[in-house]
Structure prediction request, 405 residues.
Amino acid sequence: MKRWVVNGATVVGESHAIRNRGSDDSAAQIQRNGWTAIVVSDGAGSAKRSREGADLISNGFAAELLEISSRIQADGPGHWLNDAIIESVLAVRRQLIAAAGSYDLSEFHCTLVAALISDDGGFTVHVGDGAIFTGRRSLDNTVQVELHSKPENGEYANETFFITEPNWLKNIRITPLSNCEWVMLTTDGAQALLLQRTLDFSAFSELLSGLADAGDAMAKNSVIEDFLISERALRTSSDDKTLVVVSRTSTSLFATGRPEGSENTHNNPPSMPLKQPLEVSGERSRDDAHLIQCANRTTRQDREVFARRLGSFAVAGLALTICVALISSLIIKKHVSSDGPRMQLQTATGNYRSDQNLAGLNAKVLDLNDVDLLLDLALENRAGNASESNSPYNKAAGFANAPQD
Prediction:
């Protein structure tokens, strides 16, 4: 049976050190019967108890993964596996709910980057940012690096998703692990050192060469720590940084020299977003790079143009509503004498959706010639609908904006 060894380090980011605040990152690993469970979690800096949440997620989910390994050994892998992983996440979330005394886990917001590995394969589980890389040796004794699971951000680079959110299930990614000789898990601070718009092969070369030259486990841990506090690291990110490497001991997997594909042929424009980073395995042709650029050219300028067009459509829709109302008033006016009674508005606009909105009219009497009043009522209705979308019922159901990391 081949043995897997785990090396890693966590360092406090400069932004936290200045405020005399500890790291919000957490990592845990458990090994049993040839299986290795590794979990890395990054607590959201804006959440009050994020470090507590990250600790509970990393330790609790690592134990849950080992329980899954026991069932795999007994029953073999099968269609049940995805359900078992979801049940394991639910079990850890129940621990958080108990700690919070509530189903609202916003004070514990944190990400999830995890892997369960054996000699025969395994899988990864990922929610939010951070990244998972894998590697193996090629025949020429160089290292082939692949981006196994990419960071998932929101509309902007500083937004992400958390395992503690009500809608966590739609953001979870479960991916099988193919044959590899090492697996690397990172939080977003360390991820930035290895992945920008493409994989940074010079950074991988520096790290892997250092690990190849290191002797025992303590020396390898020191290599990783030095990498995370290097000048390169300080220039790249002021966030907390955690990096864990799980590697086979049966072979010298960290080849010296440049990793395969380090002669990078990509000519990516600076505006290319991180939303869909390139998954590079060795070299890609220039044609491939061009296709990827075209597929990912969703820039901030595009979003602003779309927002302006959407606003134009909204204004046109409001104008159309007013025109329809005016035409209706003219039709109704034909059937009402000039000296007859004025009409009391109850549901004439047909747009009011609650008794509260109707009560807000204060039994106003609509003179069908009063266009200003008609406009006020239309805008009042529009504001009422907007306030409903921000009601506590919607927020409780999970429709609030995703929090920022």
In short: DSSP finds twelve helices and twelve strands in the chain. The radius of gyration is 28 Å. The domain at 4-259 is CATH 3.60.40.10 (Phosphatase 2c; domain 1).
